[in-house]
């Protein structure tokens, strides 16, 4: 990589590291920002890069949350008993159990979601365009509704996880670093991936899937693997969220189709679909917008959000990165011929 | 020469309209075979049946001895049977080189290969083929910005990049101005002679097809009407009647 | 599980209960048909898949409910909701929909989704998140030893829905605007060349759809419940119906709509009321899968 770029990345990494210490009051917000970055980048993997706009990636968030919780609870107690007592009082976790449960749970969540993505993908990737969006949305809603009727995992009450063993502020920093490490990992991962033949193949699927098929590209294989990879990171993020939030419910928190589920799409649209930095920039912009409206427009924040979605979709389709690519194509290595 | 594609008794109807009726033909391996016929004769339907675009009602289509009439488009492409599109389809957002690189034969790659970036040899091969079709100077421009004729050449180069055994071309000279046509014919012939690719071409331009093909089939009204060398076909009264409209 | 089995056994022991559930389902299904028709109309004419469909319905319901709170007779709610929602639809069209018609399909889907969120939240702010309904105070008819109850209010609701549907269909067949709409649906460019103002047609169609939804909502508030966040469920039901029946297939839409109504009622009886929302979504997935398999036989995919 060029020296300048390396220095830039190093600076960003340093900033990432010191941020929670420099701004202790914003610990949770920074963690949430990383969560947005993770879901934005992963959404763009199938959406902007591959052309399959999913409205149901939140399914992996919710599933990851549940799987991580179940794994960590399950290694110490009987899950059914735990959930029916709604986590009240008597269920203690030692520090070791907490951390081992958390880490095992989060990894397990990622793996489980990957496998689920492959299985569900067999069906959903037969759908194109708007049907894919609606189909994936239906999967996420169905999951939320069905889980809220499943008593073993807590039904409509959800699950209550143990609190972070230790100082509350240390806990905030702990979760920040969990999210940040997943976030940095996924960024590095996609940066590498988009430079390989795999990356080119999923772009081809986006640009003209029929052509890609006619040229012998294993479209189904690429689609499944891409979604599985996205699901892995989202699942982990969901798992971490569960522990951070301590208590979560199936429809409001885990399978929140109209909140985080749609936020991830708006982030990418704002920043620029199909670009490396687009999702990241978009997540930052969106997070700022959300914090501002929640603070100053309380009561109307949801309307403002809906309006943002509409305005972005209608007027800022290409996002910030897209706009930049138009104005300064040479920054991105795109050659434009002088018109004769 | 053996037959690389064997089409036997293919029937296809759309609702009440019979597009193909008991059509049989053979594409000889290593040669250039042409398919002509007036509009509505069922050429494109037959073509689409072969490449996997729709199911056939009856009959058999074999590629290298293997039945392909129930396979999907990508499976057929992965057997080495490629097609170009009449409306010319390329990846408009990518530049020429990228279009070429993505056209590397994926059937010869496994997942590990796919996770690597493209090698120097790949780039060289892309450049060579772009040079072959005369697009080297334009190779870094966004391919969606190229002219229609240039896009057609790019699509052809992409097909060559994929190392097909057999290439099906749907009206390759349609929409191209006469000066470019000679260049295209020349390159098609060279692809056949130098790379050994079997060509199966639907064409309306008689000058082009008579110049290129060693065997020509003529269809009319959904049925196979005549076959033979270019000379035989040109002198076949039935073919003349079909084009001039005598029933 | 035991609960499910005991629910099932109830159906077997008292076959007449099946009829009751069926009748309930068909009555509510009639309204689903109305909503689905509107969705198909907008879809067919403008190629916009309106995810906010359900929210237009609920909005209409609130218009009617609010009227009743002000002391107006409930039945007046239906025509008033029709007119009010016509206006709302027209505004929505001019501000949002008109700008996403020519774009790719995901854009229009997202735009309507954003609209849906806005509408649901505005309703929530205006009316609170409790469920609401309007009691007409009419009698109930009883059949079969009091096992089947058919509230007259529901019958009136179904009647109104049928009258509305019939009027719309008659309008589409006979009026000039109806013809213009059908022409635009088939080929917008050709319609323009023939002098049809497609912009007017689009605005009219979307407003008409919104009005139909509004009337449906006004009927629903009389016979069922509304709540600001119930919208998405209606949108999903409408999608299921349209996907199952196909765009131009009116008898299919009717059958599918009544079918969903019945299936939902049976499902919630057998599995429990908590599964009500889940049924519509699961049905959608099933319909999509069936369609996929059908397309696969044709060597195609579902676009």
Describe the protein in words.
The complex is a heterotrimer of chains A (340), B (247) and C (303). Chain A is mainly alpha-helical and 340 residues long. Chain A contains 15 helices and 2 strands. In chain A, strands 1-2 form a two-stranded antiparallel sheet. In chain A, α1 packs antiparallel against α7. With 247 residues, chain B is of the alpha/beta class. Chain B has 10 helices and 10 strands. In chain B, the strands form 2 sheets. Chain B has a 6-stranded mixed β-sheet with strand order 6-7-8-3-9-10, with helices on both faces. In chain B, α3 packs parallel to α6. Chain C has one domain. In chain C, a hairpin with a 4-residue loop joins β1 and β2. The longest helix of chain C is centred in the N-terminal third of the chain and has 32 residues. Classes of the chains: A mainly alpha (340), B alpha/beta (247), C mainly alpha (303). Chains in contact: A-B, A-C, B-C. The interface between B and C is small, with 6 and 4 residues.
Q: Tell me the span between the first and last alpha carbons of chain C.
A: 38 Å
Number of strands of chain C: 2
Class per helix and strand makeup of chain C: mainly alpha
Strand order of the largest sheet of chain B: 6-7-8-3-9-10
**Numbering strands along the chain, what is their spatial order in the largest sheet of chain C?**
1-2
Q: For the largest interface in this structure, which chains are involved and how many residues does each contribute?
A: A-C, 39 and 44 residues
Text of the CATH class of the largest domain in chain B = Alpha Beta
Oligomeric description of these chains: heterotrimer
Helical segment tally of chain B?
A: 10
Helix and strand pattern of chain C: HHHHHEEHHHHHHH
Rounded to the nearest angstrom, the distance between the terminal CA atoms of chain B is 35 Å
Helix content of chain C: over 70%
Task: Quote the average pLDDT of chain C.
Answer: 86
Largest sheet of chain B, in brief, is:
6 strands, mixed
- Rg of chain B, alpha carbons: 18 Å
How many separate structural domains of chain C? 1
How does the overall form of chain B come out from the CA principal axes?
Answer: globular
- Give the number of DSSP strands of chain B: 10
Supply the helix-strand structural class of chain B. alpha/beta
